[in-house]
Design brief:
The chain is α/β, with parallel strands linked by helices. The chain is built from 8 helices and 12 strands. Strands 1, 2, 3, 4, 5, 6, 7, 8, 9 and 10 form a 10-stranded mixed beta sheet that branches. A two-stranded antiparallel ribbon has the order 11-12. Helix 1 runs parallel beside helix 2.
Amino acid sequence: MQKDTTLLIPTFNRSDLLNKCLESVEMQTFNGNIHCIISNNNSPDNTDDVVYKWQRDSSKFNITYIKNEESLEPIENWIKTLSYIDTEYSKWLQDDDWLEPNAIETMMRDLNDYNPNGLIYNCNIYTKKGKIANYYKPPSKKLVREDVINHVLQLAPVFPVSPTASIFKSDYIQQAIEFGKENDICTKKLMGNDLVMNFFGIFNDLDTHYISNTLVNFYGGDDSISLVNNPKIIFVFFTISKKFNFAESLTLCFYFGD
């Protein structure tokens, strides 16, 4: 079984939620090494205190803390974490999300069973109205391009977009985020990069499996992309690599209008 994993946690001004996020890491049943890389995007709150507390008190994980002294574009804050990865597999963990206690242990076991490029899991979403359990409905399967296209066009059940739901080979995470950087309209506010992170490998013939097991929890706040479409946002999502011909390439355009 895999012995170690890295959690990439970009954060900004969410100290209470970050604390809950790290509490869930402390509760993990996984008995391997967990390396948390936290990049603080110049938060004005007490994020420092939360991180220092967990650096001092955690018995389950160690922290590399990146404290940015100036505000970065969100995507640049994500990128800051990459050079500190020291494991074969890594996962993003958004600062307002949290893990089920068996999440990392289960992911490590599934990685050994599937030997994939990456795995994407089901989730619970918590809104002001309560919990939406097992939010995504498709059965477990190896994902193909048509799944992503039908997901975007809403012609079939959708799959998790947030990379909190996923774990990938670390080399792939680097490739995916470099690809996402090319989409300047999207990257400034991270619109669309979540989907690039989870599904980019499918268009490069890298095995990605969806597992219907629910291992992560999302906080569905007022700004949740999973639940709310901002009617003022118009953006082009991404264009698949030039190595595909026109019929195989994919440009995804989202128009959130009235």
